[in-house]
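Task: sequence design from structure.
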């Protein structure tokens, strides 16, 4: 998700939105001059809106405006992510085109970078919940039709989430993860042995496709493991 603009009053926001296409608007109800409710009413049927307020008294009015979500301040981070995913699913259901930034990064990039750009964690959607996964807990990822299975050191059962291998490969490629097969992405730091055509991760052995072998070798050399 990428922030394109912020405004302190409704008039400036309305002027911007008249000439610029955005995928999602986070809107505070209480703003100087015209209220956020006025702008939400103006955007009804045009642009998805998520309302923010410190008071729950606006909830009924917000329902009438058909907004995507209603957040009470202070907003917890996981609650914010749930709203982002609602927007993503709204675009999926409506069939309207969505900016690739929102489609690919709403959940994946959240929390992946700390202040010093070190890998930390990611959130993925599981059923109706957002599940936090530490990057250093991931062993490998397996393609599963339209879903992926994320295998962890800390759990005997994988986390299953709807996501493409391509998106995961792009997002995790900077954090010592590499694709070794059309169906597998592995953590380089969890590899315990390499042999012809196979990667060992403890007792688990995964196949290496010919087309990914060179990329795996290059990634290992960059880590100065051999």
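Answer:
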């Amino acid at each position: 998700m990428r922030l394109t603009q912020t405004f302190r009053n409704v008039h400036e926001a309305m002027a911007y939105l008249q000439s610029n296409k955005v995928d999602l608007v986070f809107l505070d109800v209480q703003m100087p001059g015209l209220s956020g409710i006025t702008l939400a009413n103006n955007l009804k049927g045009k642009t998805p809106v998520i309302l923010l307020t410190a008071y729950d008294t606006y909830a009924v009015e917000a329902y009438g405006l058909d907004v995507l979500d209603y957040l009470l301040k202070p907003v917890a981070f996981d609650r914010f992510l749930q709203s982002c995913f609602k927007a993503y699913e709204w675009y999926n259901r409506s069939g309207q085109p969505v900016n690739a930034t929102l489609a690919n990064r709403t959940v994946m990039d959240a929390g992946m970078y700390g202040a010093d750009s070190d890998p930390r964690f990611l959130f993925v959607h599981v059923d109706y919940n957002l599940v936090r996964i530490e990057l250093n807990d991931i062993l490998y990822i397996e393609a599963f039709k339209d879903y992926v299975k994320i295998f962890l050191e800390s759990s005997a059962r994988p986390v299953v989430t709807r996501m493409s291998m391509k998106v995961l490969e792009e997002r995790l490629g900077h954090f010592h993860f590499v694709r070794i097969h059309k169906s597998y992405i592995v953590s380089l730091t969890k590899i315990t042995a390499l042999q012809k055509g196979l990667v060992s991760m403890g007792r688990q052995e995964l196949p290496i496709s010919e087309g990914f072998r060179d990329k795996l070798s290059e990634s290992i050399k960059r880590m100065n493991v051999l």
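Residues 122 and 177 are 14 Å apart (CA to CA).
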